[in-house]
Design brief:
8 helices; 12 strands; binds calcium ion
Length: 221
């Protein structure tokens, strides 16, 4: 999952980006409103973390402008805890709201919930035949046994599982799983998919030649 964090306090931006990467997200960053708006318009992020008080263009304006074009899930971050701010955020089209200073575990839980809702996934567990993904723990179990996937392998499998029944192109996987700092050449998706199949089940991820990959909506048990 690829996130955009728009925050003008450099230390907070750095620590947020680092914590999110450690939790397996690809993270792009922006330090002001115009840069954040530009990036959010250019790419289909899985979620955007948007600070309210930003230089040049504030978070409300970024959100309002983005909403005329896209329904990307947006979590507003603000230092203020005024009810009118929350109402304004939700009225402008924010999907959720978090008041600074916030607990990182709460932020992660809200991001996971936001992404689940946006993909129509209500349950944090996804079952694919004998394979179960726990999106809270980022853990995979097959036939009752835990299977260790690398962070990248998990991210690919989770993205395909959240979009099960759809063919997902390699380009889409690159856009959602690698951030602006990644060297994509050293991260060949095919190699990861080969490894996931080997660890879990050969037929779990189907290759659609010339189109991409697909996890069946209801695979055989
Ligand atoms: Ca700020």
């Amino acid at each position: 999952m690829r996130l955009l964090v728009v925050e003008d306090e450099p230390r907070l931006l750095r620590s947020l980006a680092q914590a999110l990467r450690e939790n397996g997200y690809a993270v792009d960053t922006a330090e002001n409103g115009p840069e954040g708006l530009y990036k959010a318009q250019q790419l289909d992020y899985d979620a955007v973390l948007l600070d309210v008080m930003l230089p040049q263009i504030d978070g409300w304006t970024v959100l309002g402008t983005l909403r005329r074009q896209k329904s990307t899930p947006v979590l507003m971050l603000t230092a203020r805890d005024a009810a009118c701010d929350r109402v304004r955020g939700l009225d402008t089209g924010a999907d959720d709201y978090l008041v600074k200073p916030f607990d990182l575990s709460e932020l992660f839980a809200r991001i996971r919930a936001l992404i689940r809702r946006s993909t129509g996934q209500v349950n944090p567990r996804i079952t694919l035949g004998d394979v179960t993904l726990d999106t809270r723990a980022r853990a995979v179990v097959r036939a009752g046994q835990p299977v260790a996937l690398t962070a990248r392998e998990y991210a690919i499998l989770e993205f395909l599982a959240l979009h099960r029944g759809e063919v997902v192109s390699r380009r889409t996987l690159y856009e959602h799983l690698f951030d602006e700092n990644d060297d994509t050449l050293s991260n060949l998706i095919d190699v990861h998919v080969f490894s996931i199949r080997k660890k879990l089940r050969p037929g779990l991820i189907a290759t659609r030649r010339g189109q991409g990959y697909c996890v069946e909506a209801e695979p055989p048990a």
